[in-house]
Design the sequence.
């Protein structure tokens, strides 16, 4: 092994490349799986309700009026309903509207503090410092997610400017490694105001509503019909109706699927209802893809590394026929010859594995530190995973070494000796 | 009378090179080696000397004939246990020294002790003792390529002696040495023979070496000649 340094080095490099890919892809898959798992746990802890005309992935101009939410809250089995608004913390850059960076962007989550709604799986978010928003909190109080807080070096008691408005940070959420790390939680009313401010259509609607409110019913009656209808419509606009989505919780003893079906049946003209079970299944499909990535990269490492070890060891053994002959002549058993070469292959495997995992780890740390600024980290670093990767490389070496080692051990001493 | 270590009768060995080309290497050889012998097998090239040595050293199997090694019927030795007998009863010295190039002198000698079942301390002590006896005290931590031919062969002799073998089989032990060094090595082997009563059986071309032996076994065309 040490006599053919270049060849051994090249083999080790082969393993290194395979294990590097395994480490990087694996850590990425771990990250996404973790995110997906967090999302799944949240989304399956509630019945998600959206206005008709929107889709789960993107909003639309549709909203859920308060009146509808109140009616949904009265459906049998529904415990409480909370409306919600979410929008990006930063307004999109006009020069780069698509945005850059990976993962989830920083998002404002407007929370309905007055609702009795509670997610079944996410009762609370653990706090790193300060406290979570509560009923009766001032409208300019916010709680900042872990990643945002650490990137922007925000502490409890600091002021944070969001879309031109100052907010008081009353809490920093602990790391969840999933969605909430990139959230800013604020009272629903404030989130609605920010949404109106940033949406020209809503802004003008609100203005006309305020104008219309100043006109008394008597004055309104005197106006021409067309203008009157317009003003009545404008008057009907209520900020409380701005709910992009809503979440319903179900009462103890009720089946979430049945409750979801009941809501769907009664309000199918107005809302889309996503049952926890169906969403869970969808999410599982996504997570299967990431598991396939881990498995795929392991297979690549296996093929690339395994074959190069087999090749190197076979060459090395044919070069060392004489040495094997000597060992056997002076009393080595077949088993001890096989063991020697298997261990040698295992050693090549583990050296490649350690280098690959180290280089992969370094790449992950560097990329994570770069992407943290523009969104979320895309790799999850887990020490157990590195342990698995290195153990895998050793086992790979041993397995790849078995064929050449058995060949060496089966070599007839006299044939090997003839080469002397 | 001394103990008989090797007793073989009518040894026959054929090699099938192809369907039509069968080489008869041994064609009924008889050989007897007693404890304390210092014997040489001589004969022209291709007379079967090396084949005989391989068979006696359990590196190869005989087609016909019987062979008792230190009272053991070698036919009854299974492939799986042959290595133990090789390690404990037989020492090998080869023409080309055949040390393992990546190991030091000490490690080369110790390796044979490992196959003979010695503990790490036992084999280290034994290897140091033997290398000192061979006059290689200063060369213990050198690798073979840092040693002269004579020194390498002395390491090989130490390696052959580690497990106190009943017999040492040597295949042209002086084949790659100049005549002065050759005689030094033969003198060393003789000294081991007389002082330690170590039994030797060697194959040689070298007449001078053969003449130094107590007993000469001559082969010709695969038979005792």
Sequence:
């Amino acid at each position: 092994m040490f006599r053919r340094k270049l060849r051994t080095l090249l083999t080790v490099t082969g393993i290194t490349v395979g294990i590097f890919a395994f480490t990087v892809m694996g850590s990425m898959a771990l990250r996404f799986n973790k995110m997906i798992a967090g999302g799944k746990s949240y989304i399956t802890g509630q019945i998600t309700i959206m206005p008709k005309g929107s889709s789960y992935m993107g909003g639309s101009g549709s909203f859920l009026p308060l009146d509808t939410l109140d009616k949904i809250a009265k459906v049998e089995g529904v415990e409480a309903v909370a409306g919600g608004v979410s929008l990006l913390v930063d307004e999109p850059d006009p020069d780069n509207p698509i945005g850059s960076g990976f993962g989830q962007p920083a998002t404002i989550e407007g929370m309905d503090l007055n609702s009795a709604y509670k997610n079944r799986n996410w009762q609370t978010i653990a706090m790193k410092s300060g406290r979570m928003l509560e009923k009766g909190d001032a409208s300019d109080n916010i709680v900042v997610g872990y990643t945002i807080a650490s990137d922007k070096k925000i502490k409890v008691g600091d002021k944070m400017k969001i879309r031109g408005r100052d907010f008081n940070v009353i809490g920093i959420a602990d790391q969840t490694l999933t969605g909430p790390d990139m959230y800013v939680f604020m009272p629903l009313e404030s989130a609605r105001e920010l949404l109106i401010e940033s949406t020209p259509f809503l802004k003008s609607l609100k203005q006309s509503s305020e104008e219309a409110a100043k006109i008394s019913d008597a004055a309104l009656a005197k106006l021409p019909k067309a203008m009157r209808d317009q003003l009545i419509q404008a008057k009907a606009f209520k900020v409380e109706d701005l709910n992009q989505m809503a979440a319903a919780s179900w009462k103890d003893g009720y089946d979430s699927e049945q409750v979801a079906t009941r809501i769907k049946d009664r309000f199918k003209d107005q809302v889309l209802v996503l049952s926890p079970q169906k969403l869970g299944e969808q999410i599982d499909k996504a997570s299967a893809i990431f598991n396939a990535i881990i498995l795929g990269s392991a297979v690549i490492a296996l093929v690339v590394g395994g074959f190069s070890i087999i090749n190197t060891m076979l060459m090395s053994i044919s070069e060392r026929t004489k040495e094997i002959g000597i060992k056997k002549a002076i009393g080595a058993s077949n088993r001890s010859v096989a063991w020697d070469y298997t261990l040698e292959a295992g050693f090549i495997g583990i050296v490649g594995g350690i280098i690959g995992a180290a280089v992969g780890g370094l790449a992950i740390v560097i990329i994570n530190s770069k992407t943290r600024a523009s969104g979320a980290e895309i790799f999850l670093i887990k020490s157990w995973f590195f342990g698995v990767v290195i153990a895998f490389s050793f086992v790979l070496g041993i397995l790849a070494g078995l064929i050449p080692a058995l060949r060496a051990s089966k070599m007839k001493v006299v044939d090997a000796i003839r080469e002397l | 009378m001394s103990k008989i270590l090797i007793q073989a009768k009518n040894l026959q060995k054929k090699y099938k090179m192809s369907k039509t080309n069968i080489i008869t290497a041994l064609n009924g050889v008889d050989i007897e080696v007693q404890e304390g012998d210092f014997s040489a097998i001589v004969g022209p090239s291709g007379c079967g000397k090396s084949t005989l040595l391989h068979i006696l050293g359990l590196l190869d199997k005989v087609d016909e004939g019987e062979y008792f090694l230190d009272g053991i019927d070698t036919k009854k030795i299974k492939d799986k246990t042959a290595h133990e007998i090789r390690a404990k009863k037989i020492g090998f010295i080869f023409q080309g020294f055949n040390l393992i190039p990546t190991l030091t002198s000490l490690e080369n000698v110790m390796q044979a002790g490992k196959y003979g079942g010695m503990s790490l301390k036992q084999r280290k002590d034994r290897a140091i003792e033997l290398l000192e006896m061979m006059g290689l005290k200063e060369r213990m931590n050198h690798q073979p390529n840092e040693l002269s031919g004579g020194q390498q062969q002395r390491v090989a002799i130490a390696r052959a002696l580690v497990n106190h073998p009943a017999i040492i089989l040597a295949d042209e032990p002086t084949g790659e040495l100049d005549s002065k060094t050759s005689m030094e090595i033969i003198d060393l082997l003789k000294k081991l023979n007389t002082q330690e009563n170590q039994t030797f059986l060697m194959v040689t071309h070298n007449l001078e070496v053969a003449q130094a032996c107590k007993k000469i076994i001559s082969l010709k065309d695969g038979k005792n000649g």
Observations:
- Residues 119 and 135 of chain B are 24 Å apart (CA to CA).
- The mean pLDDT of chain B is 90.
- Chain B is about 35% helix and 25% strand.
- The first strand of chain B starts at residue 4 and ends at 16.
